[in-house]
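TEACHING EXERCISE
Course module: macromolecular assemblies
Task: Read the component lines below, then compare them to the predicted structure of the full complex.
Student: A.B.
Group: 4
Components provided:
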Amino acid sequence: MMYYSRLRMASVIGVCLIGLALCLPNFIRQPSPSLPWRQIHLGLDLRGGSYLLLQVDMASVAADRLRGLQDQTRQTLLKAGLGYRNLATGPRGVTFTPRTPDETQPDLKALRSMPMNVPGEFRVEQGDGGQIALTLSPDAARQRAYDAVTQSIEIVRRRIDATGAIDPEITRQGEDRIIVELPGISDPERVKNLLGTTAKMTFHLVADSAIGSAVPPAGVEMLPMSEGQGTLPVFSHVDVDGADLTNASASVDPDGGGWAVNFTFDSTGAQEFGDVTRANVGKRFAIVLDNKVIEAPVIRGAITGGNGQITGGFSAQQATDIALLLRAGALPAPLNVIEQRSIGPSLGADSIRAGGYSLAAGFVLVIAFMALFYGRFGWYANMALLANLVLMTAILSLFEATLTLPGMAGMLLTLGMAVDANILINERIREEVARGRSALQAMQAGFERATATIVDSNATALLAHVMLFVFGTGPVRGFALTITIGIVTTLFTTLLLSRMLMVRWYARTRPSTLPV
Amino acid sequence: MFDRPLLRFVPRGTKINFMRGRFIGLATSAVLSIASLILFFHPGLTLGLDFRGGIVVEARTQGPADFNVIRAALASEHVSAAGVQSFGGPDDVLIRLDTPPDSEPDHEARTQAMVDSVRHAIATLPGAQVLRADAVGASVSRELFRNGMLALGISLLMILAYIWFRFEWEFAVSAVVTLVLDLTKAIGFLVITHFEFDLVMVAAILTILGYSTNDKVVVYDRVRENLRKYRTMPLAELIDLSINETLSRTLGTSCTVFLAALPLALFGGASLSGFAWVMLFGIVVGTSSSIFIAAPLLLLMGEKRLRRDARPPARS
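Instructor-supplied answer key:
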């Protein structure tokens, strides 16, 4: 217990030195880009910036899929020359009644061979009263929802990158949420607007025959015009999907005032676009963005090059933003901002200054207290305390953790806990001295007994804070992380470092009484 | 100062008979906790943005804030029901808005639009800048509240399990009952001081719990040690001895943590001072409850079992 091997000493000092080296990146500039340079990030509450919590509209993902399934069913039956009645979409699937009972078997056969997005995505069954039901499986729906969030994150990232934001952080949270952190942006209005647009572009044929009818026939939807008043009936079937775009840009409309958006399809899109336009010369083709008809020009001939242009009488800003959104791709579902926090840069600076000064003052008070009440051993404790601070900073840098105001408070509390461990040791040694033990025996027994207590109390705290980290969100998490790290460094600095200092002193001087 | 200690906290070898006052301690604690519970229901906690939902915008104006001008600017952006109040310095204003209930369609989008309107309104005031703008939707706030309470509950259970595992059932139950009493008092403190109860406060309360547990573990540790050492000592006497033996550590630690948190409470700025005040309160409560609540509870619960083989404890 009182013997401290050279190897052990070297490793304790080594860890402290490594810690010191790992702290450096927080204070000096990176001398060469080849050196790994990990540092603590300042949280948005300290540097200013915006935090947005987005929720993916899952109901819309599901509704979208059901609409697609209904459309797919209709197309399949039409292609097979089969009739249907009462084609309807319920909460979990699509139902219809065959035209005649004879067609039930061919219906089932045709539908069962429909391509699926995910294996086992839907089941085709014959229900009561001759009805046929297509039911989406919950597993496939969940998979689809998961994919929708993953895809949304990608699109959100592209859109935000296009705005030139620096170091944005985009992370998934829970089942249907996305966290967007934008350091330095204290007014997220433009970002919010960009994220609030789905930018789903589709091309549909216009159902000219349905113009003027009050109730649109099956397979036709009335969509509002983006400019001006009124609605236009278009076929629900998506002839060409904007997802097949490869590029989009804004330019001045050559045919007169205003701005236009040019787009280019990939080979699939170009092929489909060519086929549809070739087969429908003379008809109107509606360009629909987010369920609004932007324009519906008449097809004059087959368009095969895969290039197109929308001229919707846009302003320069509108055209640029639409092009940006088309380039970044459509969101699979609308995103809602459900939580927003932004902190201006000046408040961040105020907070960090106030917090920093208070921490420093608290630290000085603690050091003075320990020196006054525990003398030499108090100073050893103070050295351990300093090492603790260094090691905490080192580990936080290594993790590239984010330091927030509550995190700073957590560091302060760690200092308190570290002091406690040293006080426990010192008090125990005092007790043993009071019992009349020799200096050596007192130190030995003091350490041994205090260690059990220190481990017990710290393990309890560790458990509580790990739980806090797992279940906490936002500031609570940062706080729990700092304390969890702090407990580990506290155990190291008190049980190994301050003990080493005391033991080395004892070995050097061989005192007959202890300075406690 | 560099070798021998200059000061001593507690004179060596105190023999204070704490258990003599155990019923006074328990009664005082019970009264305070019940009072806190009454305060909790009426008038109740001041819920912060995290748990209440809504919009809070902090702005700094050029020169002392003129509320009428600010209200007029808000009105021109069609933002109504705004609470405008000062906070911090005379240049700083706090604008609060209630968000539409989540039963209404598009409430999230409307909430977000309201933040932008407030920003636009402030932009019309010369030299004014937004320091902070937070908006939390109603559904999110409910969720945050649930998660916060969950974190508190789970921490308590983990502490219970750990102490049970490391010590004995009586220790664990006494500790957790004491922690719950500490917790209620902290809530009472929040109600009286009107500090807003938000996520940061949950962290503060968890810190108190952690700190208080730490304190109890140290005393219990000594009780356990003494139980093995003095096989026939009556439990009341043994607990008193244990508290006296650890007294100087208990007070020493409390003082350092108190000193460490004090500057933060006084100068830490608006965002941290509430946290630090709650911690200061918690340090006092946690330290006293180790001595006056947790130890007597252990005595009451363990009188029969922990000292089954010893002679009956001396009544004081």
